[in-house]
Specification:
Low-confidence stretches: none
CATH topology: Alpha-Beta Plaits
Shape: globular
Radius of gyration: 18 Å
Mean pLDDT: 92
Distance between the termini: 22 Å
Largest sheet: 7 strands, antiparallel
Order of helices and strands: EHEEEHEEEEEEE
Strand content: 35-45%
Helix content: 10-25%
Number of strands: 11
CATH architecture: 2-Layer Sandwich
Length: 212
């Protein structure tokens, strides 16, 4: 069976891929998690019936062609708490976070057959989703505006990969120790059961992170 693959580039001024182990002062991972990458793809296109779904495979941390930058930019950011413990009687509560600045990623994914049935000629949801995604990406159409983690961090660019403008930053090598991969036990209609990548699976090598 043919693999149906898709890819896109996304960049922006700020990004937040929150590490769950940083508690009440959230700090961002340097690259989107599997779940975050899946959400970016699905902001462009997805099938509501789940007969095909996007499975992110890897992400590249990028920079402008010719840029000598070899580091990931972090900065402090103050945010208003809007969670379930919000109390209108005491006024707004603000907390500090550590976010990323001036980011650019290329993300790659396979489209999986979620129907559980053998694909038939003329009824191929994987090909349908791939064609829908590529058509919308080329036209600048989306289901909802793609963002870089938090909704307020709207992408300044999202679309096809720009080979002449950006390149993988192969100077980035980091051991993240532990990275949240999936929040639920299944990609579609799953139950809450976080899964982490650890050890050799939690390393960014030459600007590339592989989703396990």
């Amino acid at each position: 069976m043919s693999k149906y693959q898709i890819a896109m580039e996304i960049s922006g001024d700020f990004a937040m891929w929150a590490r769950p182990d940083t508690g009440s002062t959230p700090t961002s991972y340097p690259a989107p998690t599997w779940s975050a990458a899946k959400g970016i793809f699905e902001s462009i296109a997805f099938l509501k019936d789940g007969r095909a779904w996007v499975n992110p495979r890897r992400v590249e941390i990028c920079r402008k062609v010719g840029d000598s930058c070899e580091q990931i930019g972090y900065q402090k950011y103050t945010n208003n708490y809007r969670g379930p413990l919000q109390n209108n009687d005491t006024g707004a509560f603000q907390f500090s976070t550590i976010i990323l600045s001036d980011v650019c990623y290329r993300i790659y994914a396979d489209i999986e057959n979620g129907s559980g049935e053998h694909l038939k000629n003329g009824d191929n949801p994987s090909h349908q989703l791939q064609a829908m995604f590529e058509r919308r990406l080329a036209k600048g159409q989306c289901y909802k505006t793609p963002c870089l983690g938090w909704n307020e961090f709207v992408a300044s660019y999202w679309g096809p990969i720009r080979e002449d403008i950006t390149e993988k930053n192969d100077a980035i090598n980091l051991d993240l120790v532990s990275v949240l991969n999936q929040v639920f036990d299944k990609a579609i209609s799953g139950n809450y059961q976080p899964r982490f990548q650890r050890g050799s699976e939690a390393k960014i090598i030459n600007g590339e992170f592989i989703y396990a």
